[in-house]
């Protein structure tokens, strides 16, 4: 029992990443040739270019959030990260024809969350003690950083060298909308080259034009679940397709993420029947039949007759 996915009113998508721009000490100006800056700046522009050049896509929002590491004073870190984030915004704005206020910015003066995550997964000798200091709300940011530095100088030096540079980053996010497709042949062409542009409903429309059980039919549902790996409907339809071709291993894997709808319950019954587990199949069919799945009632009657 295949399920038609709900149509998206607007096909909104986003791409995001992190760039690690290096600035000279206490400076806010960007030098593309400074350290790896050219490659890091290219991350942002390549992300923008990947959608801006597509006629089917319209960029709706662009945001940048800057982070600084905790060493030094909080006041100075706030001044630097605010200025550096603005500098990066201006750099990107100068490369494109976005409206003046199109790029939205924000900043985090000291990236304590990132530091905590690094310490928690590290093998530092005083890991638990440092985590306790980070989590202690009685410390102001400067006092907290000094407490770690003065109490555990060896661990602090390690963090300063190996962790702090990665805490200084700029997260960017490009939001955009993709036009809808209704022509099945166009959907098929896009599915082969740019499946990420399709909605689940568009994958479903393409599959309905194909012969059930054919390789292209299976490919449509397999591609859909690859694009939407956590979607219940995508997993249910992929499970049905897998069972149809005898791939019970993948069917079972998909059904683990197919939700608890009556159709999913029926599919689990079908899988149980294919696995020769008649008792479990009957229980699933009975539940699905009560929910109005006619196919479940028919299968349940077959089991009772046997």
Q: Gyration radius, to the nearest Å?
A: 27 Å
**Strand order, sheet with most strands:** 1-4-2-3
Structural class: alpha+beta
Largest sheet, strands/sense/barrel: 4 strands, mixed
H and E order: EHEHEHHHHHEHHHHHHHH
Alpha-carbon distance between the termini? 23 Å
Shape by Cα distribution: flat
Overall average residue pLDDT: 96
Low-confidence stretches: none
Strand content: 5-15%
Number of helices: 15
Architecture overview:
The structure is a single chain. 56% of the residues lie in helices and 11% in strands. With 306 residues, the protein is an alpha+beta fold. A four-stranded mixed sheet has the order 1-4-2-3. Helix 5 crosses helix 6 (153-162), helix 8 (184-193) packs across helix 9 (200-208) and helix 14 (278-290) runs antiparallel to helix 15 (294-305). The longest helix is centred in the N-terminal third of the chain and has 22 residues, at 74-95. It is flat, with a radius of gyration of 27 Å. It starts with 10 loop residues before the first strand and ends with a helix.
Helix/strand layout:
Blueprint: E1 11-19, H1 37-52, E2 57-67, H2 74-95, E3 103-108, H3 112-120, H4 127-135, H5 141-151, H6 153-162, H7 164-167, E4 170-178, H8 184-193, H9 200-208, H10 215-227, H11 232-244, H12 248-255, H13 262-274, H14 278-290, H15 294-305
Parallel strand pairs: 2-3
Antiparallel strand pairs: 1-4, 2-4
Helix pairs in contact: 3-4, 5-6, 8-9, 9-10, 10-11, 11-12, 11-13, 12-13, 13-14, 14-15
List keywords for this structure.
15 helices; 306 residues; single chain; four-stranded mixed β-sheet; alpha+beta; 4 strands
């Amino acid at each position: 029992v295949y399920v038609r996915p709900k149509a998206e009113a607007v096909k909104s998508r986003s791409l995001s990443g992190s760039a690690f721009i290096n600035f000279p000490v206490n400076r806010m100006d960007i030098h593309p040739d400074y350290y790896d800056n050219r490659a890091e700046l290219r991350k942002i522009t390549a992300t923008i270019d990947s959608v801006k050049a597509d006629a089917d896509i319209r960029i709706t929002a662009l945001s940048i959030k800057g982070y600084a590491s905790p060493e030094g004073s909080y006041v100075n870190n706030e001044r630097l990260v605010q200025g550096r984030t603005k500098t990066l915004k201006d750099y990107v704005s100068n490369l494109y024809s976005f409206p003046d206020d199109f790029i939205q910015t924000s900043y985090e003066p000291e990236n304590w969350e990132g530091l905590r995550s690094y310490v928690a997964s590290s093998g530092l000798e005083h890991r638990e003690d440092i985590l306790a200091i980070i989590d202690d709300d009685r410390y102001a940011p400067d006092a907290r950083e000094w407490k770690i530095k003065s109490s555990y100088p060896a661990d602090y030096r390690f963090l300063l060298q190996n962790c702090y540079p990665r805490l200084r980053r700029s997260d960017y996010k490009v939001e955009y909308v993709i036009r809808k497709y209704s022509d099945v042949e166009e959907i098929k062409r896009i599915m082969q080259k740019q499946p990420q542009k399709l909605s689940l409903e568009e994958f479903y429309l393409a599959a309905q034009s194909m012969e059930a059980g054919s390789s292209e039919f299976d490919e449509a549902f397999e591609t859909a679940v690859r694009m939407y790996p956590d979607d219940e409907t995508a997993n249910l339809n992929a499970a049905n397709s897998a069972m149809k071709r005898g791939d019970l291993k993948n069917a079972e894997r998909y059904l683990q993420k197919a939700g608890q709808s009556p159709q999913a319950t029926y599919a689990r019954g079908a899988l149980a029947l294919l696995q020769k587990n008649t008792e479990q199949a009957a229980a699933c069919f009975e539940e699905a039949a009560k929910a109005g799945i006619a196919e479940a009632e028919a299968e349940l009657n077959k089991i009772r007759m046997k």
